[in-house]
Structures are given as C-alpha cells and as structure tokens.
Specification:
With about 475 residues, the chain is an alpha/beta fold. The protein folds into three domains: about 5-85, MurE/MurF, N-terminal domain (Udp-n-acetylmuramoylalanyl-d-glutamate--2,6- Diaminopimelate Ligase, Chain: A, domain 1), CATH 3.40.1390; about 105-315, UDP-N-acetylmuramoyl-L-alanine:D-glutamate ligase (3-Layer(aba) Sandwich), CATH 3.40.1190.10; about 325-465, Protein-Tyrosine Phosphatase, Chain A, CATH 3.90.190.20. The chain is built from 16 helices and 22 strands.
C-alpha cells in the first residue's frame, strides 16, 4: 500500500502516544469530519469558532482511519474506543509532522506571497510545472497558520514540485510559516494596500511580506515584481538575509522575465515573454494584464527549476479563472443571456482596480450594459473612506456607467461618482441581492467584486440559482 504516512512515522514525528490498534498507515489527512475520506487521519484542530474534538465521532463514522487528539480533551471523549494518536496540542503536532514532511522530501519547493495574485500565481505554477513531474500544491487558499502545515503534512514523499501559498493579515505571520516551508524559490507578486487597517503604511506591508525571505534555503532564489515601487526595498531585504540569487519580472527594461508585449481580450490574452535573448509568445486562457504579469513569475520559476518551459507555456492556454477570482458564467435570461464575472472572493484597492479594468474589456451584447457590483474592501482601518472614494477614478477611466454598491464604506464611492454614472446604493448586502436579481438585463456584463466577509458571494449564488447556464443549442423563439 502506498501510504501518505505510516503510523509509526507519524507517532515519532509528532511525539504522540498511540491508543488502540493503529492501522499500518493513512492515505491522507483531514481536518473536516464532513469531507473526510476512508483511510484518512482526522486531526481535531481547535479553531476560533469550532473545536474538531466535538466532531471526532462523526469523523470516525465517515471513514477516518484514526484520530489525532489533544491529551486535554481525551477524558471528554468518554468511551470512544477507536485508534488514536494523543498529542499535547493538535496544531502543534501537525506543525511537527509538517517539519518531518519537508525534511523527508527531495522536492523543489516554491513559496508565493503578495498583496494580490497569490492564489492565481499558485494555480499557474501548478499548471506550468505539472508536465515536468508530480506537483503538490495548496488547495483553495490554505495559506495561514493551519493551512500551510496541513498542506506540508499532506505532501507525498515522491513529490517533485511543492507549491505553497503564504498569506498574512499582520506582521510576524509569514515568518514561522516560511520556516516550515523552507522554499528554494520565494515569489512576491506585488505590494499593495491590503489589510491596511493593521499597518501604519504600505512600507510595513512590504516588510511583513519580506519575512518570506527568511526561510529560503541556502543557494535559493527570490523572484520580485520589478514594476512595483517597493522592488528596491524588497531586493535589499532579500540581500540582508543572505539571498544572492534575486530575479525579477515585469515590463521594466531590466526585468529578467520581461513582458515585451501584451494583447488582451475579454476572455483570453496573449503576452510575449522575453528571457535573455529569446522572446516567446504565450497564450493565456484567462483575461487581464494582472494575470499576464503573474504568468511571467510562474514561467520564470519553470525556467529557474530546469523544468520544461515549452510544456509549461502550452499548459497556460487552458488556464481558467478560479471561483471568486474572475470565473465567468454565461446565464440564460428571457430569450437571451448575460455574463456574470465572479470576483467575489476578496478585494483590496489594487485588485479592485484590476477587476474594473477587466470589466472595461468586456463587450456587452445588443443594448447590454457593463455593470460593476461592488462591496466594501475590509481591513482598511482609518484609510477606509479614502480608498473607497478613490475608486471613482478607476470607474470613470474604465467608462463604467452602471455601478451598484453595498456596504457602509461604499457610501464614499457613491458620493464621489458624478451624476453621469447610474449609481444604486444599498447599505446591506442582502438588499442589493434583491435589486440585482430584478435589475439584470439581456446582454449585460455584470462583475461582482468585494471582500469575502461582506457576503457578496450571496449575490453570485443568487444569480446562479435564478438564471440557468446558457446553451447555444437552446431553441430560439
């Protein structure tokens, strides 16, 4: 049997105490009792709102091979007679298993952070490296204090390329995570005012992102955005911790992976990548200049790791935006259709501008409209009013004439937009849901963008629930 872990190795790595007859090994690791697969180990992590120990019985009923639980919660489990590994603290034990996983692996490891584009770049890396060997990468946005060790612990021993996303909301959050990952390549996509309410200024955000350099293995590389105003700051930060191999991407003339030319459309794009003396045409299955810029970093990593660049380029032609990150839906309405662009996963000033620019490229059909459905950007602190009002310039530059807003901070944008723009404002998200469902029309292109915590995903879900997917084979009346 090809185990992810033998239980003997798990017990040793986690300094655990076995109880009951443990299986020889496990096929996977889960922290969700609802989705656990047969043969996997259930780690009963205690989160901010949910304690996994409360769901131990459900995990076993759903096929868990064993439980990993904390010593302090053992008495509360009563007469539960199942295979267990008892540890001092489940999350700490998971981190120790992550360390063991990294130590046993011979994979080339890449860590990605940045204010915008982490998940998209991680998914591009997954695609461009897959033709060259077995890739293990974070699922969804597992980029925090439990997501990173979980992803590491799940990494099969025969992985050739490990891709890890690293996020943060505050200083000193990336530092311990990158010490677990120990990447050969660290990528910072860009620095922008995200989570600005937790920092005094954007330079503090750059400093927090620069923590990623501290875990890079000796002889490793950093890849930085040469077009970003904090490039020099980040280059110096990388050098200060001993990284000598610093490469860059962007349109800048000195970028190692340079965007020589870009041609974008509403559903795809083409870029020309210059590496050294060679310029290569790259077709992308997803639209947006910001996507193309991050593709430079992904393809540069392929080159750096000695993987198959031609195969990686070919893989990008099939790139599709992820759910909540630009995913497109063509939906039936009446005897026609409209397009929904789902950008509802997250938002900050930089990603908001990128999404608005993407909407500007969209071509409505007939008398359809470009409609920006925008919600609050969270964690902006004292800067909230200014950053929301400042979006007016992006909306006007993009020629967007219909803007539907919700959230207390979006009142600033409402007040800043001129009468030439059709503005609809609701304070509560659910009130805007009702409006959008009734106001969308044939031919529209509707882009939904907000921070995840605003609940704008409910607008997307309501539209997908009410309007079926459009098919060109449907009879025309």
């Amino acid at each position: 049997m090809n185990w992810l872990w033998t239980t003997k190795d798990m017990v040793a790595a986690m300094n655990g105490r076995p109880i009951g007859q443990l299986p020889e090994g496990i096929t996977g690791i889960s922290i969700d009792s609802r989705s656990i697969a047969s043969g996997e180990a259930f780690f009963a992590i205690k989160g901010d709102r949910v304690d996994g120990h409360d769901y131990a019985s459900m995990a076993m009923a759903n096929g868990a091979a064993l439980l990993v639980i904390s010593e302090g919660r053992l008495p509360a489990l009563g007469r539960l007679t199942v295979p267990m590994i008892v540890v001092d603290d489940v999350l700490a034990a998971l981190c120790r298993l992550a360390v063991a996983s990294r130590k046993r692996s011979s994979a080339k490891v890449v860590a990605v952070t940045g204010s915008v584009g982490k998940t998209t770049t991680k998914e591009m890396l997954r695609k461009v490296l897959a033709p060259s060997g077995k890739v293990h990468a974070s699922v969804a946005s597992f980029n925090n204090h439990w997501g990173v060790p979980l992803t590491l612990a799940r990494m099969p021993v025969d992985t050739l390329f490990g891709i890890f996303e690293v996020g943060m909301n505050h200083p000193n959050e990336i530092r311990p995570l990158v010490q677990l990952i120990r990447p050969h390549v660290a990528i910072i996509t860009t620095i922008a005012p995200a989570h600005l309410g937790n920092f005094a200024n954007v330079e503090e955000i750059a400093a927090a992102k620069a923590e990623i350099f501290e875990g890079v293995v000796p002889g490793g590389h950093a890849i930085l955005n040469r077009d970003n105003e904090y490039y020099d700051y980040l280059e110096e930060a990388a050098q200060s911790v001993g990284i000598q191999n610093i490469l860059s991407f962007g349109q800048h003339a000195k970028a190692d992976f340079r965007l020589a030319e870009f041609n974008g459309s509403q559903e795809s794009s083409t870029l020309w990548l210059t590496i050294g003396a060679e310029t290569i045409e790259v077709a992308l299955g997803a639209p947006g200049r910001h996507i193309a810029e991050n593709a430079l970093a992904a393809l540069g990593t392929v080159k750096l790791l000695g993987a198959d660049l031609s195969a990686g380029i070919a893989a990008l032609a099939a790139l599709q935006p992820e759910k909540g990150r630009g995913q497109r839906h063509r939906l039936q309405i009446g005897h026609g259709s409209f397009t929904l662009i789902d950008e509802s996963y997250n938002a900050n000033p930089a990603s908001m501008r990128a999404a608005i620019a993407l909407l500007a490229l969209a071509v409505p059909s007939g008398s359809g409209r470009r409609v920006a459905v925008l919600g609050d950007m969270l964690e902006m602190g004292d800067h909230a009013y200014a950053v929301h009002a400042d979006l007016a310039g992006a909306v006007l530059a993009a020629g967007i004439e219909h803007v539907w807003l919700a959230g207390p901070h979006m009142a600033a944008l409402r007040d800043e937009l001129p009468d030439s723009v059709d503005v609809i404002y609701r304070e509560a998200t659910d009130d805007l849901v009702a409006y959008v469902l009734n106001a969308v029309e044939v031919g529209d292109v509707v882009m939904v963008k907000s921070s995840l915590g605003t609940g704008f995903g409910r607008i997307v879900a309501a539209l997908l629930d009410k309007f079926p997917a459009f098919s060109d084979t449907q009879p025309r009346l």
